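Quick one:
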Amino acid sequence: MARKSARRKSIPKRATTRRASVHSMPTPSGEYHLFAYSDKGGGGVRGLERGELPGSNFTVHVADAHEAFAKALSEGAEPVTPPFRVMEGVTVAVVKAPGGVRVGFSGP
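Output:
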């Protein structure tokens, strides 16, 4: 008995992608490469620090990066990268939360 072939679902066409813009800059902990793939989205890539295992870290947008950094330290986080201005209107900072997870803050 011949098997009926499985009906193939229609596969959507691949979305058109925009080229990402990339901006490299020095930071207190080494070179950091920012990329933007739209007016509202993007990310960054950096090298590993000595003793750091490969993985992903996350960054949250906050109303005030300096204030978020200070609050995290008061709650038991360890400083990794103190707040510094990346460009007009953008300040970033990184802490190591209890348990070792790195958390980035980005905001004015």
